[in-house]
């Protein structure tokens, strides 16, 4: 079997194009589909899972002296790209007391959290009378977590749909390639777009590592033979079924019914 090589055709902070070849016929689709699924669903990341605004209790409220309502603010919050080195939920906050725009760079974050896109717009205060305490809860996870999963939050906290996956898009295509006179080998082109919290190379390494961990369990699995269950003895001997009804000591009424 010919072992493939990996080459980076194009690479940047958010995009990577990798070519994996040569692969045995059919392996291009097998690897491409598996890597794409893991890239999109299984890589860990960080996201805002809930917010708290002083004086606001649900997502359909208007925010005093702020141009956006709560729903529009949540949409902006979902665009935040964060790195968290804490396994526990972490809180970010900002106190808004002056007129003007507020961006992600204005958030006060603990050392274990990094805001990757500090220019992300959040809201605009349209009056100097504004007095708003804005707090965000950042958690780590995998894939996607809808707000409906977080119904038991403290009073005043509003749940937010959390998109943990650091990979925004992954695509692959398979082409034919040749080695010597053989032309039935596969060439896998894999493209990865990330949100900037992880490099394309690192995302590919992590996805491959997850697949290897699962496949290694299968490679080391031992076949266990299941012994057939012992047949239970019949509870009623066959001679009872063949006995005449006269020998069954039935009541007169039961005997007459069976006799008829």
Beta-strand segment tally? 14
- Total helix count? 5
Mind summarizing the main beta sheet?
Answer: 4 strands, antiparallel
The first-to-last residue Cα distance is 80 Å
CATH superfamily membership of the largest domain, which one?
Answer: DNA-directed RNA polymerase, insert domain
Proportion of residues in helical segments: 10-25%
Give the C-level CATH assignment of the largest domain.
Answer: Mainly Beta
Using the CA coordinates, give the radius of gyration. 32 Å
Gross CATH architecture of the largest domain: Beta Complex
The overall pLDDT, averaged over residues, is: 89
CATH topology of the largest domain: RNA Polymerase Alpha Subunit, Chain A, domain 2
Major sheet strand order: 1-2-14-13
Strand-pairing-aware structural class: alpha+beta
Beta-strand proportion:
35-45%
The global form is: flat
For the record, the count of structural domains works out to 2
Low-confidence stretches: none
Order of helices and strands: EEHEHEEEEEEEEEEEHHH
Notes on the structure:
With 260 residues, the protein is an alpha+beta fold. Helix content is 21%, strand content 35%. Strand 1 (5-11) and strand 2 form a beta hairpin. Helix 1 (27-41) crosses helix 3. The chain is flat, with a radius of gyration of 32 Å. The termini are far apart. The mean pLDDT is 89.
Tell me the layout of helices and strands:
Layout: E1 5-11, E2 15-23, H1 27-41, E3 44-53, H2 70-77, E4 82-84, E5 90-96, E6 100-103, E7 113-115, E8 121-125, E9 132-142, E10 144-145, E11 157-159, E12 162-163, E13 167-179, E14 182-194, H3 200-219, H4 238-241, H5 252-259
Antiparallel strand pairs: 1-2, 2-14, 3-9, 3-11, 4-7, 5-9, 6-8, 10-12, 13-14
């Amino acid at each position: 079997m010919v072992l493939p090589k990996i080459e980076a055709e194009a690479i940047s902070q958010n995009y990577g194009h990798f070519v994996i070849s040569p692969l045995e016929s059919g392996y291009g689709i097998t690897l491409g589909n598996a890597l794409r699924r893991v890239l999109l669903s299984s890589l860990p990341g960080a996201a805002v899972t809930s917010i708290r605004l002083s004086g606001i209790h649900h997502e359909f409220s208007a925010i005093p002296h702020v141009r956006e309502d709560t729903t529009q603010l949540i949409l902006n919050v979902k665009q935040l790209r964060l790195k968290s080195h804490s396994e526990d939920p972490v809180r970010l906050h900002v106190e808004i007391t002056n007129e003007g725009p507020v961006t992600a760079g204005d958030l006060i974050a603990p050392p274990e959290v990094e805001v990757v896109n500090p220019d992300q717009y959040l809201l605009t205060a349209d009056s100097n009378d504004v007095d708003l305490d804005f707090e965000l809860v950042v958690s780590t996870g995998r894939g996607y977590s809808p707000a409906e999963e977080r119904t038991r939050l403290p009073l005043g906290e509003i749940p937010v749909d959390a998109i943990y996956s650091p990979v925004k898009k992954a695509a692959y295509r398979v082409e034919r390639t040749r080695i010597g006179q053989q032309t039935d080998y596969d060439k896998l082109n894999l493209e990865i777009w990330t949100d900037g919290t992880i490099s394309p190379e690192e995302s590919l390494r992590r996805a491959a590592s997850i697949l290897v961990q699962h496949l290694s369990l299968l490679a080391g699995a031992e076949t266990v033979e299941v012994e057939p269950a012992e047949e239970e003895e019949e509870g009623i001997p066959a001679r009872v079924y063949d006995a005449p009804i006269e020998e069954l000591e039935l009541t007169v009424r039961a005997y007459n019914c069976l006799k008829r």
